[in-house]
Amino acid sequence: QLELVESGGGLVQPGGSLTLSCKAPGFTLAYYAVAWFRQAPGKDQEVVSCITTKDGTTYYTDAVKGRFTVSRNNAEDTVFLQMNSLKPEDTGIYYCAAGPNPHDTEFSDPLYYDHWGQGTQVTVSS
After folding, report:
1. Does residue 25 contact residue 117 with C-beta atoms inside 8 Å?
2. Distances in Å between the alpha carbon of 67 and those of 64, 86, 108?
3. Which pLDDT score, from 0 to 100, does residue 122 have?
4. Is 30 helix (H, G, I), strand (E, B) or coil?
C-alpha cells in the first residue's frame, strides 16, 4: 500500500515562506501525479496545486497563483510545494495525494486521488 509522508510544516509570520515535501517510502512517486490539498478549521478541503508526470504540467488554485510553486525531484523521488508570501488564510493542514495524471477539470477533485498522507500543519500568524 502506497503511503505518503508530508513534512516541512510549521509556524511562520505573514509574508514568510515554507517548503513542504512529500515522499512515498518504498514506492516510486515519480510514476504518479501528486496534488496538494489543504483544510482550514471549519472549512472544506480544497486543492492547492498538482503536478503531473507529463512534462511537469502543473495546476494551481487561483488563491495561490504567483505565490506557490509545485515541483518534483525524481532523483530524490520527492514533490515539493514552495510557499511564498504566506497569508493567514493559508493556515491549515496540508495533505499530499497521489494518483493518475488528471485533466485540468479533474485535478481539484479529491476523489480522483487514491493515496493520501497524514498531513502537516501550516500556521501563518504574527
Report:
1. no
2. 5, 8, 18
3. 98
4. helix
- Do 113 and 22 touch, CB atoms closer than 8 A? no
22 within 8 A of 96, measured Cβ to Cβ? yes
Q: Rounded to an integer, what distance in angstroms lies between the CA atom of residue 101 and that of residue 55?
A: 11
The position carrying cell 501525479 is 33
Report the alpha-carbon distance of residue 87 to residue 104 in Å, rounded. 26
pLDDT number for residue 2:
84
Give the torsion sign (CA, 94, 98, 99, 103): positive
Low-confidence ranges of the chain (pLDDT < 70): none
Q: Are 38 and 122 in contact (CB under 8 A)?
A: yes
DSSP 117: B
Can you tell me the distance from the alpha carbon of 14 to that of 89, in angstroms, rounded to the nearest whole number? 10
